Amino acid sequence: MITRMLHTRYRVNDLDKTATFYRDVLGLKEVSRHQSPRGSTLAFFSAPGSDVQIELCQYPASGPVVVQPDLTHIAFEVADLDAFAKEAATKGYPLSDGPTVTGSGSKIGFIDGPEGYEFELIEKKK
Fold first, then answer.
1. In the chain, how many domains are there?
2. End of a domain among 62, 82, 106?
3. Which of 47, 61, 104, 123 makes a 20 to 30 Å CA pair with 39?
4. Reported pTM
5. In sequence order, what are the residues at sequence separation of 6 or more whose Cβ sits closer than 8 angstroms to the Cβ of residue 107?
6. Which CATH number goes with the domain that contains 107?
7. 75: domain range?
8. How far apart are the C-alpha atoms of 23 and 38, rounded to whole Å?
């Protein structure tokens, strides 16, 4: 029986560029980086207030990563979506959709990372 979620993995072509996006744009903390026994390079990231980690995996031996549009996304809560969007845009990552006010009064927006993975940003209704 499952007792808790530990991490989710995203394979990437350029680990350093993607790690920089996770740290400098999303504000996540890199908690470890190492080589796996099969030869892939793994970097683990955590978000404030969450025990679940995101694993980035670079494994060129399995071929290039091709992320199809709207395949998956990770959602993060932000305190101020407009402020986040402004800061991310100055770093070359403008919102790809939104901001949009939902029926519940929350505000959402989306941003695309360097590998094409999508991130949802949610400002909860105050």
1. 2
2. 62
3. 47
4. 0.90
5. 81, 98, 99, 100, 101, 122, 123, 125
6. 3.10.180.10
7. 67-126
8. 26
